[in-house]
Amino acid sequence: MSTDSEILARSRNSPSAFAELFERHSASVGAFVKRRIGADAAEDVLSETFLVAFRRRADFDTGWESARPWLLGIASRVLKKHRADEARQWRAAAASAHREGTSHEGGIDDATVRMDAATAIRELAPRIAALSARDRETLLLYAWGGLTQEEVAAALGIPVGTVGSRLNRIRRKLAPPGSHSVARLTWMGKEDADGRLGAGA
Questions:
Q1: If DSSP codes are grouped into helix, strand and coil, which group holds residue 191?
Q2: Most CB within 10 Å of its CB: which of 80, 100, 122, 198?
Q3: Which long-range contacts (CB under 8 A, 24 or more apart) does 175-183 make?
Q4: With contact defined as beta carbons under 8 Å apart, do 45 and 33 qualify?
């Protein structure tokens, strides 16, 4: 099976080869986008993401076998045009959490709690929405994009140490109000047993 890097190299002279990259990654990129802005606008963002990727295929760093971090980085930049849609998604999630009367007592900080991702996102929605745009982008590429810290760094064009620093700062910001400890991001499935953020799973 060809690597993404090989497909992109081939597509420079044979543009039709790019279709294989779309077939390989459109579902995961589409799922990431849909969670960010909802189904209505997701198709447009997905189309634009792959159009940009096709036009810039010669710029791909062939040192990476997988194009997924690159594609998610492009999607993240395209998503900036859809901030209103994303804000609406977060407001809906926060309203859902409020309606359900969600309690944070002992929740995220309790090492024995294992919530599924959807429930955790609803509970954390107000605090995630309050993060700075760059912190939220880092968190969601890591959590929803399923990227390692190294891949997040490549997607955003920043040092990997910056990614680690942001994720640790985010853990503190997502802790329940009044808590003296940091949030355990167990809903990511990416934490070491002692609660430190790992490099990804």
A1: strand
A2: 122
A3: 175/108, 175/109, 176/104, 176/107, 176/108, 176/109, 177/104, 179/109, 181/109, 182/109, 183/108, 183/109, 183/124
A4: yes
- What's the confidence (pLDDT) of residue 118? 55
Name which residue leads in pLDDT, 132 or 162: 162
Taking residues 179-196, report their average pLDDT: 49
Q: Is the pLDDT of residue 144 over 80?
A: yes
Please, what is the angle between helix 39-55 and helix 68-79, to 10°?
Answer: 120
Tell if the pTM clears 0.70, that is, is over it: yes
- Closest-CA residue to 123 (of 94, 99, 151, 149): 94
